[in-house]
Amino acid sequence: MTEYAQDLRTFARFTKDHQLADPLSKDDILAYHRHLRDDLDAKPATIERRLVTLKSYFAWRADRNSALPSPFADVRISVRIPRRLPRPIDRETLKAVLHAETGPANVLLTNRAFATDHAITILMIKLLIVTGLRISELTNLKIRDVSTDASQIIVHGKGNKERIVFVPNEELQDAFRRYCTDRAMQGSPKSSLFLNAVGRRLRSQTFRKRLRALSHRLGIAPHLTPHRFRHSAATLLVEEDTDIRMVQALLGHANLRTTEIYVRVSNHALRRAVERADILRTLE
Prior knowledge:
By secondary structure, this protein is mostly helical. The chain has two domains: 2-64, no CATH class; 91-274, Intergrase catalytic core (hpI Integrase, Chain A, Orthogonal Bundle). Helix content is 56%, strand content 4%. Strands 1-2 form a two-stranded antiparallel sheet. The termini are far apart. The relative contact order is 0.09.
C-alpha cells in the first residue's frame, strides 16, 4: 500500500509543479510519462507500476463521478521492461557448496534413520542442479513420483503439466535411492518425499532458510536461492552443448524463448573467458 500511496504523491507533485487541473487530458498523461522517464530517470518497472496505479485511480474516480472521465481513455503507452538475465551460481561456488557435506555427521542414511537436515539439504541441492526443478516442484514430490531405481522423477509443473526428469549421476542415484527406500518404509506412496524436522512436508520457505544459513556459513554472497540452482542447471547444460529444446523440456518451459535466455547467459561467460585470454596480447 505504501508504494501505491507514493505513486499518487509523485503524480500530485507533477500536477502541482505543472499547474494542471481537472479535467486532465491524454497529453497530460503522456507528459507525466516523459517526466518519469526523462526527468526522474525511473526504471521501466517503476514507470509501469506508477502508470497502472494512476489508471486504476482515475477509473475508480470516474466510476463515482461521470463528470470526471479518465484521461487514460485513449492513452496507449508501452513501457518496455528489459528482461533480467538470470544469475546462475558459478562453478567454484557450486563446488564449495557440494563439498560442504563432508564429515561423519552428514552420512545420508544409516539403519533406516532419517538423514540430518544438512544431508537432506545437500541431496536436494544436487537434485536441483541436475534436474532444474522449481523448488515448489521438488518439495511437492510424493514418494510414488520417484522410480524404483531413483533414476526418474515424475514432476507436476505449472498448470499441473506432467513431465519426467532424470537423475543421471550414479553416486547421486544411489544416495537418492537409499533415501527414497527409507521413506517408502515409513510412509505411503502418497506421502511427501521430503519432510521437515517434525515429520511434515518440507515447505519451500523452510528450504530457503536452510540455504540462507548455508550461504552465511560458507560466506556466499549473494545468498543461495532455489531458483539460482535452477538457473545454474540450465546454464551448465547449455555450456555443455545440450540442445536448447532438451533444456526446454527439462525445465518445463512452455515457450522456447523463455529457455533461450540461458544461451545469452552462456555467451556472457564466453565473453569473459575470451577477455581473460586476450589472445592478441599473447602474440606481442
